[in-house]
Amino acid sequence: MENVPGGTGFPLLAQRITVNPDYEAFIFRKFDRLSARNLLHLESRLVYLEYKLDQADKQAALGSDNETRRSIRAWEAFEQNSKDETRPEHDRMKMVEEVSERLKEYHETEHINENHVTWVTTTISTVVAAILLLGAIVLLRLLDQDNAQLGMIALFTVLFAGSVAVLTNARRTEIFAATAAYAAVLVVFVSSPSSNHEMGNCTCEVSIH
Question: For residue range 21-74, what is the model confidence (pLDDT) as tens digits?
């Protein structure tokens, strides 16, 4: 391990985090609550800027200055007049530029949060799918009575249909097809072991002459 200048505090901690080639120690807080609060602040700021910009546009449209009215219809006039600090277009241009910056920041933050939500949803969907399939197989394997097996198949089929409807964007026809395929797998699983079980319990008489 190489020595880090000022090898204490953050420099030393950063070195120890990166010493593993697999970066297994790269575990950091996501600050979900602060991210949500930051989004709320950005949203509120954008609402306020939208209101101010609308009021400025209305004032320009009702004004008596032809050049000001032209600036709300032609970008060239708006851009040219905004260079004059004494004209109202100057303040409106500053608002437009701030709206652009805040919108970019807002969408970038929102995109990061959406990626996190997508990862969580995918993980939950994978776990639920495994539980519904493996759990149903294990329970059906333990049950011997036909009525109990049919009831368990019905229960897991309803749970599967509900999970597909909630955790995915599948259409009704897709939900129906997936549920039918899931139920068919369980029915086949139940029917196959029973036939094998009967074959295993059959007795054969061997006559020796």
Answer: 766 677 778 788 898 899 999 999 999 999 999 999 999 999 899 999 999 999
> In angstroms, rounded to a whole number, what is the distance separating the alpha carbons of residues 92 and 58?
12
CA distance linking residue 189 with residue 96, whole number of Å? 64
Q: Which of 121, 127, 131 is nearest to 167 (CA)?
A: 121
Question: CA-based Rg of the chain, rounded to a whole angstrom?
Answer: 33
User: How far is residue 182 CA from its own chain's centroid?
Assistant: 25
Cα-based torsion angle of the residue sequence 93, 96, 102, 104 in order, rounded to the nearest 10 degrees: -110
Whole-number Å distance between alpha carbons of 7 and 11: 6
pLDDT tens string 138-160: 888 888 888 888 899 999 999 99
pTM for the complete prediction?
A: 0.54
Q: Would you say 132 and 160 are in contact if contact means Cβ atoms under 8 Å apart?
A: yes
Q: How far apart are CA 47 and CA 139, in angstroms?
A: 54
**What gap in Å lies between CA 97 and CA 95, rounded to an integer?**
5
Residue 77: exposed, middle, or buried by beta-carbon count in 10 A (0-12, 13-18, 19+)?
Answer: middle
- At 44 the three-state DSSP class reads helix
Q: Which residue carries 């198949």 as its tokens?
A: 153
Q: What is the dihedral of CA 54, 59, 60, 61, to 10 degrees?
A: 90
